[in-house]
Sequence to fold (611 residues):
Amino acid sequence: MRFLTFVTKNLLRRPFRSVLTMMGIALAVGAMVALVGISNGFVESFIQLYQGRGVDLVVVRAGVSERLTSALEESLGDKIRALPGVRDVAGIMTDVVSFPDLNLYGVPILGWKPGTFLLDNLKFVSGRPLTAQDGRVVMLGSVLAKNMGKQVGDKVDVFEDEPFEVVGIFESLNMVENGSMIVSLAELQRLIDRRGRVNLFNVVVTDRADEGAVDRVRQEIEALAPGMSAMTSESFVTSDMQIQAARAMTWITSIVALVIGSVGVLNTMVMSVFERTQEIGILRAIGWRKSRVMRMILVEAVLLSLAGALVGILGALAITTSLSRLPSFSIIIARGIAPAVIGQGILIALILGLIGGAYPAIYAALLQPTKAIRHE
Amino acid sequence: MNDASANGAILSTKGLTKNYPDGNVAALTDVNLSIPRGQYAAIVGPSGCGKSTLLNLLGALDEPTAGSVYFAGRSFAELGGMDQFRAQKLGFVFQSFYLLPILTARENVQIPMFEGTLSAAARAKRAAELLELVGMSHRAGHLPKQLSVGERQRVAIARALANNPELLLADEPTGNLDSKTAQEICGLFDQLHREQGMTIVLVTHDQNVANRAERIIAMRDGRVADDRLNKDGAR
Ligand SMILES: Nc1ncnc2c1ncn2[C@@H]1O[C@H](COP(=O)(O)OP(=O)(O)OP(=O)(O)O)[C@@H](O)[C@H]1O
Ligand SMILES: [Mg+2]
Fold:
């Protein structure tokens, strides 16, 4: 018989209790893996989007924490373009619109200049990109088009009584863009009454492999006009207030779940040690050292948590996969959970088991053998 | 070192005293004993006279209030601690068998072996040999509740032998058995003593059981009242 077999048999003595404890861990680890996985996937997708487009720097108004309210003069774009080392610039405006009758809220609407390099990375499922001759036309992300049930040639009421004709349906590298609509920059500025303004500039640097060159361009842009902040696209994404808030929430929720999970293991193992007091005394009497008793309890706790983690991770995978098929979630959950996050889940379960098992293990090891044996 | 090791004692005590704090019971007072290697000794005496207390101290299951126990002339501390001593040198048999209910006979016998260096396969093989020795091969796959009390004690004895101990301690091993089964278990102890030269110290209430030992130590009120060799014993 292997030690692990013996330990497993101990857990199977109270199958119901073991399963309940496991479920607690499964919920905790599952929630953590799902939340962290989704939020990481979200951030990752944005970083990939910028990298896919070759955007090296993002310029926003300095000190503005909410990006939608960042406002810069559109004309600064030409000044940035004129800087040595800058290959291309795209000023963009973003807002959100809702379609209550379609049950769609907070749909991003982007204002892009016709002909911008940003369009190069969109794959058109049907129709065509915006052109300079277009007026009130809109391009829909593939997910949004599906959710709205719109095709090329249909009309969309972007704001009340402002019908825009759908000219193209596109697929982007980024799931949020797939759930967005794009109109020309001028139209969006007119619609939200912010003429001559953009939220931010996307900047492509000529010598992008050279970090020093990127940094020089960054400093030159910031020197152009007061109140401008240029940052690498990666730090732009990760420093986003909403993303940071979402990440903080994710971790707080996960930590609460994990604490509850480890208290569950602690509770189960304490009960189990109390019930087996006499048996632990006997094990000591027939030759087990303190360390062996401790290992038995710790391995039981870790086994419970790992089994729970496995169930939780499978559950998280199942839930994220099925959620990503639902229209309202498909723009936030695009891909599966990264293996690294699954690894983190397993590691955390291991630590949970050790934490939950530590006190009962030490308590059990320190039982005085004759007293333990007399215990009924 | 103490003088007892000079005459080949496997186990000796010096001024061994135990007071239980709760109730302030003087369970054992100044016990000086020396058990030569290979001896078969029985401890007898009325209930509450301190027999189990003495055996637990000899088996490093409890710490004395005063005095010491020596194994081959060395204190437990010199041997690497009480845990080390119990894991390597000692086998313990109880009145109530104390087999683990969820494990089969062959699994129960393997439990102490986790403290040794045997592989899983070697553990299984050794367990089979030990069950053979105690005549329990045919019931190796049974759970304790499926065994008769006598069979359970045989399995418990096999378990006590798991780590090749130099010394076997038994606290009323026949206390829960009818007289016929008790005689069979005694036969097993006799055999271990005769064939393997095992040192055995057992506590008993049963005069018939005590009479089979080479030496009878009688206790009263926590002291050794009488200690004599029994020339009829261990045949
Ligand atoms: N853990 C303990 N705490 C307090 N008192 C104890 C404890 N263990 C034993 N005693 C007391 O110490 C004395 C000796 O007990 P012990 O169990 O050694 O006797 P015994 O000779 O084995 O008796 P029996 O034949 O009934 O088993 C008794 O008075 C008993 O009540
Ligand atoms: Mg007793």
Remarks:
- The two ends of chain B are 33 Å apart (CA to CA).
- DSSP finds seven helices and eleven strands in chain B.
- Chain B touches chain A through 31 residues (CB under 8 Å).
